[in-house]
Every structure is written in structure tokens, then in C-alpha cells.
Amino acid sequence: MFDLLFHSELWLAVARGIPITIALTTLAMVFGLALGTCVAVLSNSENPVLSWSGVAFTFSFRAIPLLTLLYFLYYALPTVGFIRHGPLWDVFFRYSFAIAVLGFSLNNAAYLAEVLRGGIKSVTRGQVEACMAVGMSEGMALRRVVLPIAFRNSVMTIGNELVFTLKATSLASAIAVSDILSNARSYGKIFSDNISPYIAAAVFYLLMVGLIDVALTAIRKRAAM
Questions:
Q1: Does this model's pTM top 0.85?
Q2: Which of 17, 134, 151, 193 could in theory staple to 180 by disulfide, Cβ–Cβ 3.0 to 4.6 A?
């Protein structure tokens, strides 16, 4: 039953999905963090329209299941005429990897926006007033003081979101992205083995999450010094 586990071809086949998994995780975190920062700033705005827009975005993409979002972007959106025949079809929407990056980025942005919104609120009014006292504008204070403090206070939660994103990338196999899980499933179908390939995939996920945990532990220790 477990004979395939001792074949190097299995491990090599599954490992070919590692670069895709890492690329998807990295891009989703980068774009998600950038968009999430903007949404967090909007949510904390004193302008009710901007604040409502940020809250609505966060609620919507936190409420929609990630797999549902991926299916909508991959199967439903291309049926819309101006998407299918628009300028972005050939350079973006026809590629499953690009769709996966978009879906994960939107999902990450919603969760990271909520994290950073709390981080921004942790900045005291006195710290903001100190910035104003030395001649900073509100925008400058936001860039130079408020956001750096918010990121520092949220770094561990952002790290946890990174772990979640890495594991969640396995859902991308549902829209034909050749990640770790997709390669494991394909190899299992070839050899009619529904156990060994998934064990190999689980081992690779364990190793990657373990490396992230080690890095987060080092960051936590450094922050405590």
C-alpha cells in the first residue's frame, strides 16, 4: 500500500509543485498586505463614506468562502462578455494561476485589513499629536509613524496569516493550478494510489510550515528583547 513512498519519482513529482505554492503564497501576501493596508486606512477614516467602503470590503471578502470566490473568478467571471473579450483576458484572466493570485489576495486583504485596523487603533492619540507638534501632516504621520507601529504590533498575526495562506493554497488545485496538492492528485491517479501521494504532500506542507514557525519564533524573540 505504501510502496510508492519509497520511490523518488513520487517525491520529485510532488516537489515540482513547491515553486508554484511558494509563488502563490508570496504574491497573495504581498498584494493582500498592500490592499489590506489601504482598506484598513479607509476603515479608520473619519469620512463615513470611506469608512463604510472599507468595512463593506472587509465584511464581504471575509464572509465569502475562499473556494467559492475562486470558483466564481475562474468559472463565472469569464462568461461575462467584456471580461472574455476585453484586453485583460489574454494577459490575465485566462490563466488559472493569475486567477488564484487574485482570489487569495482579495481574501488576504480582508483579513489583513482587520488586523491592521486594530494595529492602527493601538496607536495612541498622544503619539499622533506628537507628530503634528513637530510639523508632520496627517498623511506624513500615517506613513512614518502610525503604519510602522501598526505593522510592528501586528507582525505575529500577519505571520499567522502567512501560515494560513500557505495551507489554503491547496485550494488552488480546484482551478487547475499545478501546486503541491494538484501534482500529488495527478500522480495518485496514474498509479491508482490514494494514500502515498497525499502523505508526500502533507510532508512538504509540514516542512514549509515548520520553517515559517521557526522564523516567526525568531521574530518574536527579537521583538521581546
A1: yes
A2: 17
Q: Does the CA dihedral 195-200-201-207 come out positive or negative?
A: positive
DSSP 8-state secondary structure symbol assigned to residue 194: S
Distance CA 157, CA 124 (A): 20
- pLDDT tens by residue, the chain, 225 residues: 567 778 888 899 999 999 999 999 999 999 999 999 999 999 988 889 999 999 999 999 999 999 999 999 999 988 888 888 888 888 888 899 999 999 999 999 999 999 998 888 877 777 777 777 777 777 788 777 888 888 888 888 899 999 999 999 999 999 989 999 999 998 888 888 888 999 999 999 999 999 999 998 888 777 665
Q: Are 200 and 11 in contact (CB under 8 A)?
A: yes
> Treating both helix axes as pointing N-terminal to C-terminal, what angle do 18-43 and 196-224 enclose, rounded to 10 degrees?
50
The C-alpha cell at 142 is 500615517
Total count of residues recorded for the chain: 225
Residue 146, CA distances (Å) to 55, 186, 222 in order: 20, 48, 21
Residue 181 burial (CB count, 10 A): 24
Tell which residue, 116, 117, 215, has the closest CA to residue 166. Answer: 215
Q: How far is residue 104's CA from residue 24's CA, in Å, rounded to a whole number?
A: 8
Q: What is the CB-side half-sphere exposure of residue 61 using CA atoms within 13 A?
A: 23
Give the largest Cα separation in the chain, rounded: 71
E-assigned strand segments in 64-181? none
